[in-house]
Amino acid sequence: MIKRKYKVYRKYRDSKHPACIRADKKAHKVIRRAKYNFERKLADNIKKDTKSFYAYVRSKAKAKIKVGPLVNKDGEVISLAEDMSEEFNKFFISVFTNEGNESIHEAE
After folding, report:
1. Fewer Cβ atoms within 10 A, N terminus or C terminus of the chain?
2. DSSP assignments along 32-96, one per residue
């Protein structure tokens, strides 16, 4: 329908022409119905396929999730991305342990 809409417009070169208006309305109707069917299918399959549902919801969200600003253990506010990454690095180093490069004995 969109291709038809463009074809009609190329023929008449006037968006106010009745044929162009009809083609535009029909294309919008088809797009609206396809979007409705897609969203309905996502909602129906949410129990089986939650990943695609939430991916679609995230794509429609206007606000993007951002990290920061952080407060370090001295009480200073950190807002620069490089400084925040350094603070996260320090935190994760303190939380995780280093097991070393010793060979792991296999169970026989």
Report:
1. C
2. HHHHHHHHHHHHHTTTT-HHHHHHHHHHH-SSPP----EE-TTS-EE-SHHHHHHHHHHHHHHHS
pTM above 0.85, yes or no: no
* Sequence letter at residue 1: M
Q: Which residues pair with 78 in a beta bridge?
A: 70
- Report how far residue 105's alpha carbon sits from residue 103's, in angstroms, rounded to the nearest whole number: 6
68 touches 78 (CB < 8 A):
yes
State the pLDDT at residue 100. 66
Nearest to 87 by CA among 75, 98, 78: 78
User: Quick one: pLDDT band at residue 25, thresholds 50, 70, 90?
Assistant: very high
Treating both helix axes as pointing N-terminal to C-terminal, what angle do 18-44 and 2-12 enclose, rounded to 10 degrees?
170
Alpha carbon separation from 38 to 30, 47, 51, 102 (Å, rounded): 12, 16, 15, 53
